[in-house]
Design a protein that fits this description.
By secondary structure, this protein is α/β, with parallel strands linked by helices. The chain has 36 helices and 19 strands. The chain has a six-stranded mixed beta sheet with strand order 8-7-9-13-16-19, with helices on both faces. Strands 4-3-2-5-6 form a five-stranded mixed beta sheet. The longest helix is centred in the middle third of the chain and has 19 residues.
């Protein structure tokens, strides 16, 4: 498939998105009368059949409506008042009623809901007096809206019920649909809410009211979101936004608020960049429309997005904007929600006094039945170090969330209560709450939007909650349970993706979203040979992603259980070494083949670990690298692995976390000066669930080819105008690997033959795929990372542009037991709780069972020695982890003896035994 065809298959649906603070918004906002002011009833005189009577009062009224729709409120109020005076003088009650309704619309738009209520009551009374049932019913509806915003919900329900009864009697289906949508916001339970929505949709569709249909779809999306059915919520939200985008100016307020509903779905999938871009769009619409209440709500949700991103100053800024806007209205409940949000923000900023003051502002009212008041009170107290005071409101919040059948509210309230229990040393209770919250997460995860892009960030939101559970289990000395809990947070989207791919081998990428802000590219860095500098196989550049391509992922795979992990360890005769890196604590567990689980806890934070890993391979001097290798061994290996391992070497499957995902454990040094690889054969996986999902997958037939690719004749440009430079060792490596593979059928693509189109033609029949070339990683756009192939015949509309990108690898069809990527950092990529998003992940999806990739830069000459040795050992061992160990030990020995040299302008220079020269390669996947 050509790149152009690939782009067509991945055509992107551009959706403007937003994020909602789940603790701040229940189901959105009800219909408002806005500018939809009904015309007053007039006598059916011939001159009025196509318009208003030609009188000064009616001319003033018509001009007032025009100005109202232009949001020129002062002029509109003046003309309505003039028309009202004429109506009173002429005793025209229908015109009088229309004027009061217009004045009520102005008051509503300005947030003066009490004034709006007075005007709408006057209008309704006049329409009732003259027997105009239709406009009287609209008056009931307008009165209900005003009552809703000032917090008088029971009275609002009565008014809307009266309006609905009249519209039913009149047979006005469009009006019925509008009232039904309002009643959704006062529904008592999920069943009633669903019934109201479906009834309203049926009526709106029967009369073809596109705006009503879109608004009801938005309501149905919100209801599905509340029930935790995110995929259904997403479908309806997208349909609503798309419809409202084409509905014109009259839909602008509804459109902005629909962005908020859609954004909540992106929030739970952790797509924060898209959310923030969409919020700014929504905020601009609401500012332009003069929608103070909507503006306040959007500003509040932007603050929630910044809370998730840890940007406290921006969070406070938008909460202040929200409070300033909402205080200019009579929307009591909305103002209370913003105050509660600000209280939690102040608590996080350490201002407990200010936070508690905001909590008590509404102390004259009974808040025990107000979910958000109870949740905020619990949050403020637990953050302020008063866990005992947090328990009671947290327990009330949990009970209220259960009664509302709101999964997200229940999750967050359990989380807060678990935090309080942990602070009080009640570890059994803390784990019980955390465990229930994790079960809620599992139920929500099963109904995520079924594509990889949306799923990847979901589990990242709950790192703190997992930490609470692990801390409790650590204290309770339950290491096996703790190891199983940590597994629940790992690479869940990746596991789903692999299982979904196996179920349907033909990929069909689904659209997700396009980045709204366009692209900002920085010049790529280039690898140039300097005097005394080693040639390396790649580079790393950073640029903002241009788009977010997606992959279908309809599976929802449960995590590997402790029973699963014990079975794998026993059947494969391996130990599983699993890690969890927290903000201040690193935890590790070792599961042995006999099923025993040991645990260790190390007081080292993620930043210190990241610095040590970087020093290990980046330090130019050997001394600094040796110190880092010893420190890392002491911290993350010695607490669990024995210093005198059995013979032959034990095989260990490492499940890293956080910064440890970029660590080649082979290089670590013990107190005896022995590297870990000298005692153990190592393989890696982002989660046990990932490797378990590959069990039973089929590969090519035994007589399949061995495909060797590399040493392109013309390398592509990597940004700028300069091409990547040639790698002399790659050609020698391919020849030596071919000899090491022996009599097996080998197909070698090098020089001009090393093109993407040739590679695609050969892949399907290959059991082993070996690529020796540059790897170029784009950290902020992982799908744009690529392997450099031949660019002799550059055709940017065709396949042979010299870049085999991760995006294109996802579209490949492999049956390979082993893919070897002899290129720089081919095993790395953008880090997330779902593992590393890079080339190796793409090859696993394409069908590889195991991948040998690199975590660091690869020097050309050492790689040309290591790879043939690896294949010679693989032929005897039949296990990539043992074969790689043999090859690395052989290369390490040669380096120590000065047998590996590079030639430069100073002649032949022996290379040191620096870990960057021999330890970069790792085996990803289960041992054979």
């Amino acid at each position: 498939m050509t790149r152009n065809a690939g782009r067509r298959r991945r055509s992107l649906r551009v959706v403007l998105t937003a994020i909602v603070a789940v603790w701040m918004t229940a189901y959105g906002s009800p219909d408002v009368c806005g500018h939809a002011v009904a015309d007053p009833a007039v006598d059916e005189t011939p001159q009025a059949q196509r318009g208003y009577p030609d009188t000064p009062g009616h001319r003033a009224f018509a001009e007032a409506l025009r100005l109202l729709n232009l949001r020129q409120y002062d002029g509109a109020a003046e003309r309505f008042t003039a028309a009202l005076a004429y109506a009173l003088d002429t005793r025209n009650q229908s015109l009088e009623a229309g004027c009061h309704r217009g004045l009520g619309a102005i008051a509503h738009d300005q947030g003066r809901y009490a004034d709006a209520l007075d005007e709408h009551r006057r209008s309704r009374a006049l329409f009732l007096a003259i027997g105009d049932q239709a406009n009287a019913a609209r008056g009931h509806q307008d009165v209900g809206v005003a009552l809703f915003w000032i917090g008088r919900r029971d009275e609002a329900r009565t008014a809307w019920d009266e309006a609905l009864s009249t519209f039913v009697a009149l047979g006005d289906q469009a009006a019925q649909a509008s009232v039904l949508r309002n009643l959704v916001f006062l529904s008592r339970n999920a069943t009633e809410r669903s019934g109201l929505i479906e009834r309203g949709l049926s009526l709106a569709r029967s009369v073809g009211d596109l705006l009503a249909i879109a608004e009801l779809l938005s309501s149905r999306s919100d209801a599905a979101f509340t029930a935790g059915d995110y995929r259904a919520a997403f479908d309806d939200a997208v349909a609503a936004v798309e419809a409202l985008l084409g509905a014109g100016a009259r839909a602008r307020v509804a459109l902005a608020r629909s962005f908020t509903s859609l954004g909540r779905i992106y929030r739970v999938h952790a797509q924060h960049d898209l959310a923030l871009a969409a919020y700014q769009r929504a905020l601009a619409i609401q500012h332009d429309a003069g929608d103070l209440q909507g503006y306040a709500q959007t500003a509040r949700t932007i603050a929630a997005a910044y809370e998730t991103l840890g940007q406290v100053a921006m969070r406070r800024r938008y909460l202040d904007m929200s409070l300033d806007a909402i205080r200019r209205t009579d929307a009591i409940d909305e103002r209370r929600l913003t105050e509660l949000s600000l209280a939690m923000c102040l608590a996080d900023l350490g201002d407990s006094e200010g936070a508690r003051h905001l909590l008590g502002i509404d102390a004259t009212h009974d808040d025990t039945g107000h979910y958000w008041a109870q949740h905020a009170a619990a949050y403020v107290e637990v953050v302020g170090g008063r866990a005992t005071l947090a328990l009671e409101p947290a327990t009330r919040a949990v009970a209220l969330a259960r009664g509302m059948q709101d999964a997200e509210r229940l999750l967050y309230s359990l989380w807060v209560r678990a935090r309080a229990q942990a602070a009080l040393g009640r570890h059994e209770d803390a784990y019980a709450d955390a465990s229930e919250a994790l079960d809620v997460i599992e139920s929500l995860r099963a109904r995520l939007v079924p594509n990889d892009y949306m799923k990847r960030g979901f589990m990242d939101r709950f790192t703190e909650l997992f930490g609470i559970a692990l801390e409790a289990l650590d204290t309770l000395q339950r290491p096996a349970d703790a190891m199983a809990v940590a597994e629940r947070a790992r690479a869940r989207a990746f596991t789903d993706l692999l299982v979904a791919r196996r179920a349907q081998r033909q990929p069909s990428p689904l659209p997700a979203a396009a980045v709204l802000t366009g692209s900002v590219a920085s010049p790529a860095s280039h690898t140039r040979e300097a005097p005394g500098q080693l040639a390396t196989r790649g580079t790393t550049s950073r640029q903002l992603p241009r788009s977010a391509d997606d992959l279908p992922s309809g599976a929802a795979v449960p995590p590997a259980t402790m029973a699963d992990m014990r079975r794998i360890a026993r059947e494969r005769d391996i130990s599983i070494l699993s890690y969890w890196v927290g903000p201040s604590i690193t935890r590790a567990w070792l599961l042995s083949p006999d099923g025993e689980v040991l645990s260790a806890r190390v007081d080292i934070d993620d930043r210190r670990l990241e610095a040590l890993v970087a020093t290990l391979w980046r330090a130019p001097g050997r001394a600094a690298s040796v110190r880092a290798a010893r420190d890392l061994h002491r911290l993350v290996v010695e607490p669990l692995l024995p210093s005198s391992p059995p013979t032959p070497p034990r095989r260990v499957l490492i499940v890293p976390h956080g910064p440890l995902a970029a660590l080649s454990f082979a290089a670590l040094l013990d107190a005896r000066g022995r590297h870990l690889v000298e005692d153990y054969a190592l393989s890696y996986a982002p989660a046990v669930s990932v490797v378990a999902s590959s069990e039973g997958s089929t590969t090519c037939c035994p007589d399949a080819t061995r495909l060797l690719v590399g040493s392109p004749a013309v390398l592509p440009q990597d940004g700028g105008t300069e091409r990547l430079r040639r790698l002399p060792g790659a050609r020698r490596e391919l020849a030596a690997v071919g000899r090491a593979l022996g009599p097996a059928r080998v197909v070698t693509l090098e020089g001009r033959a090393a093109s993407e189109s040739n590679l695609r033609r050969q892949l399907g029949a290959a059991n082993i795929v070996h690529v020796a070339t540059h790897g170029v990683m784009h950290d902020d756009a992982p799908l744009d990372s690529y392997l450099a192939l031949d660019a002799t015949s550059i055709d940017h509309e065709g396949p042979d542009d010299g870049r085999l990108t991760a995006r294109e690898i996802y579209d490949l069809e492999l049956h390979a037991d082993l893919v070897v990527l002899s290129a720089c950092r081919s095993g790395l990529g953008k880090a997330s709780g779902d593992g590393l998003l890079g080339l190796a992940r793409a090859f696993f999806y394409a069908g590889a069972r195991r991948v040998v990739a690199t975590l660091w830069d690869v020097a050309d000459e050492p790689a040309a020695r290591l790879m043939p040795s690896f294949y010679r050992s693989l032929a005897a061992r039949a296990d990539p982890s043992l074969a790689l160990r043999d090859a690395q030990l052989a290369l390490l020995s040669d380096l120590r003896r000065g047998r590996v040299v590079v030639r430069g302008h100073r002649g032949a220079v022996p290379l040191p035994d620096h870990p960057a020269l021999w330890a970069s390669f790792v085996v990803m996947g289960l041992p054979s």
